[in-house]
């Protein structure tokens, strides 16, 4: 089993930056990819960014390209989401997720993920 804990959310003004962290514990050796999703009130959970280190792939949603960056610290079993030039429409609960299947794709669909964190709120004021 794997546990994921997000941190780093908060309130920021438009144009500002935040860095989210997702610490994984448990059977982390079984993981091959992780991603970040977000869910705004009244909307479905949507893909943000993902990293598949077994395949050497990074991918991101068009809405965050050039602004959000995902990275990983293997020694700390932690994945980060650096969010720059934040906009009010980025306001949402952000979730990290992990995949235990080894593949070559960039996982962008919620049903492809096996583990989820509890989420952290990000609020961007205008």
Summed up:
The protein is 0% helix and 52% strand. It has no helices and eleven strands.
Estimate the global geometry from the Cα principal axes: globular
Q: Report the portion of residues in β strands.
A: over 45%
Tell how many strands the DSSP assignment holds: 11
- Average pLDDT, to the nearest integer? 95
Order of helices and strands: EEEEEEEEEEE
Could you give the distance between the termini? 40 Å
**Main beta-sheet strand count, sense and barrel state:** 7 strands, mixed
**Helix segment count?**
0
User: Helicity level, as a percent range?
Assistant: under 10%
Structural class, please? mainly beta
Please give the radius of gyration in angstroms: 14 Å
Note poorly predicted spans: none
Describe this structure in words.
It is a single chain. With 126 residues, the chain is mainly β. It has no helices and eleven strands. It has strands at 2-7, 10-13, 18-26, 33-39, 46-52, 57-60, 68-73, 78-83, 92-99, 115-116, 120-125. The strands form two sheets. Strands 2, 4, 5, 6, 9, 10 and 11 form a seven-stranded mixed β-sheet that branches. A four-stranded antiparallel β-sheet has the order 1-3-8-7, with no helix packed on it. Strand 5 and strand 6 form a beta hairpin. The model has no long low-confidence stretch (mean pLDDT 95).
